[in-house]
Amino acid sequence: MGVRDWIIMIRVHRRGQRAGAMFHRGDLTAAAATLTDALSLAGRQWGDANPQSIALMSNLVDVRRALGDLAGARELGERVVELSGQVLGDDHPVTWHAVNNLALALQEGGEPGRARELHERELAASRRLRGTAHPETITSMNNLAQCLFRLGEIDAAYDLAAESVRLSREVRGAGDPDTLIAIDNLGVVAGARGDLDLAQELHEEAAEGLRHALGDAHPRTAEALANLAESRGKRPGPTLS
Fold first, then answer.
1. Whether 73 contacts 58, CB under 8 Å
2. Sign of the four-CA dihedral 211, 215, 217, 218
3. Which Pfam families match (predicted)?
4. Separation CA 13–CA 190 (nearest Å)
5. pLDDT at 83 exceeding the cut of 90
6. What is the pLDDT of residues 130-167, one digit of tens each?
7. Going by C-beta distance under 8 Å and a sequence separation of 6 or more, which residues neighbour residue 237?
8. Is the CB of residue 38 less than 8 Å from the CB of residue 19?
9. What is the pLDDT of residue 239?
10. DSSP letters of the chain?
11. Percentage of residues of the chain with pLDDT beyond 70
12. What is the pLDDT of residues 49-67, one digit of tens each?
């Protein structure tokens, strides 16, 4: 690899990091623009069939999903999964990350059955490659629990969501945003089971924690506050984070 390649790689990596920070702040439009810029730079230097471009495209799938562009997320997600399998192999972490992002786009886009199959495959791979207590495995558990909820398998969703919350508290800590999002999701499932007291308790914990961790203006905080309001009987329609 020449000097120019190293320079481009550093620039691409830094833009990818900035996009990730924007995404976690809830600045989705800026994250999408920064990822697109990084992809353009990487593509001009190496083409699409390289690990840097594949990882960036996979992250862009998740950003498009969060922006509500489910058709665009699915189209890009299908391409990334195929490309990553060809270039990096089926057991590469980037490939399974791409599978997970595609599955999320599918379940939110009205294809929970196909999404479930992908989530189950990705969770099994994560357990095998990383272990049950790894943060990425815990996230995979929560994603599958959301999918089961959408499929109407409420008890199975509750059991898996509760396990993911337990592990996330232990591994990440109770105040971590990912833990709090998992707690909020568990509250949605608890409410669907009819355990309204538990649902309100979980939504209160999630909303208070996310306000502290992310601020009142963050989309995740807004979702948690909406779910808390619903659990108190003020508005309909709780949503999974």
1. no
2. negative
3. TPR_12
4. 40
5. yes
6. 999 999 999 999 999 999 999 999 999 999 999 999 99
7. 226, 230
8. yes
9. 63
10. --HHHHHHHHHHHHHHHHHHHHHHHT-HHHHHHHHHHHHHHHHHHH-SSSHHHHHHHHHHHHHHHHHT-HHHHHHHHHHHHHHHHHHT-TTSHHHHHHHHHHHHHHHHTT-HHHHHHHHHHHHHHHHHHT-TTSHHHHHHHHHHHHHHHHTT-HHHHHHHHHHHHHHHHHHT-TTSHHHHHHHHHHHHHHHHTT-HHHHHHHHHHHHHHHHHHH-TTSHHHHHHHHHHHHHTTSSS-----
11. 96
12. 888 899 999 999 999 999 9
Spatial distance between the Cα atoms of 194 and 154, rounded to a whole number of angstroms: 11
218: left (phi > 0), else alpha (psi -120 to 50), else beta?
A: beta
**Nearest-5° Cα angle at 93, 4 to 182:** 120
pLDDT for residue 208 is more than 60: yes
Q: Could you tell me how far CA 210 lies from the centroid of its own chain?
A: 16
Rounded Cα distance between 186 and 241, Å, is 10
Q: Give this prediction's pTM.
A: 0.84
pLDDT of 1 strictly over 80: no
The crossing angle, in degrees rounded to 10, of helices 28-46 and 51-67 is 160
How far is it, in rounded angstroms, from Cα 110 to Cα 29?
24
Task: Please report, as a single letter, which amino acid is at residue 223.
Answer: E
Q: How far is CA 47 from CA 17, 40, 44, 51, 52, in A?
A: 20, 9, 6, 10, 10
Contacts 24+ apart (CB under 8 A), 32-40: 32/60, 32/63, 32/64, 32/67, 35/59, 35/60, 35/63, 36/60, 38/11, 38/12
